[in-house]
Design brief:
alpha/beta, Conserved hypothetical protein from pyrococcus furiosus pfu- 392566-001, ParB domain, 4 domains, 5-stranded mixed beta sheet, elongated
Length: 304
Amino acid sequence: MSSLDRLRELKEETERRQAGGRRRVVDLPIGEVHPDPRQVRSDFVADVLSAEDQEDLEGLARNIAAIGIHNPIHVRPDAEGGYVIISGERRWRAAGIAGLEVVPCLVAAEGELDTGRNTLTQLSENLQRSNLKLLDVANALRRCLDETGLGQAELAKELGKSKSWVSKYLALLKAEGPFRAALDEGFLGNPETARMFGRLDKGRQENLLRRARKHQQAISHAEVARLDKQQSKESQTRQADDEGPQRVENESERSNPSEPALSEHVVRLTSRQLRELIARLGGTPGEDSELVECLLGVLATSLA
């Protein structure tokens, strides 16, 4: 190898290293760019878009066909060839619909080739869209925590959210039964609605889910709030009914067992007083006994 060839080789190697150490925008054949199989949006991974998403995508495609892509697609080199999308899959899909053969891409620098950071970037971009499933957010947050080593407070700061916001989403990962199904199918679009839905009994959850599937509509926040309030009142009523007999029993236990019951006390006092009254009125023993027994019978009946 000549000295000139060696110099050219060194120059090319230096340029490759410099390019790898910084971001660069290049035009890439659309066929060399492919989606991330770990994309945070489950509907993109499954390639099953809602009618609303498909309509939005076609609208974006018309826009791209008219004016092109002004915001480059963020990609990273793939070890198996080509480039993997970090963020901008909607633009890439729309470019394909528009018939573009080449797309502008921002190629990540070497220091950005971190899977946890890539997930964080995807999540940050998708949070700007209102139709991201709650469970997609929760799963992405869990991945970010596992892959970046960040704590919940640090992750919240990276996303511009509060720690409680992160905690509420992570709690959704524990959902089971109809609650999990409602989240998986995207029928719960609001974290607060999901929190109340999770408190409902299984029967109420199943009824709401059945209705949502039938009409293919999100579960109403107002309806969930109404049922949550109704269930809370029913629970309070049952608790009061259960505590009623116990309260009476406790009151009885607190009374002094050595003292005679009120009815016995009244009957004994009345019997003695009656005998004294009859004696003072000049009654005879026979009359005393007969009259006392008669009056005691009346008293016993009234106190029963």
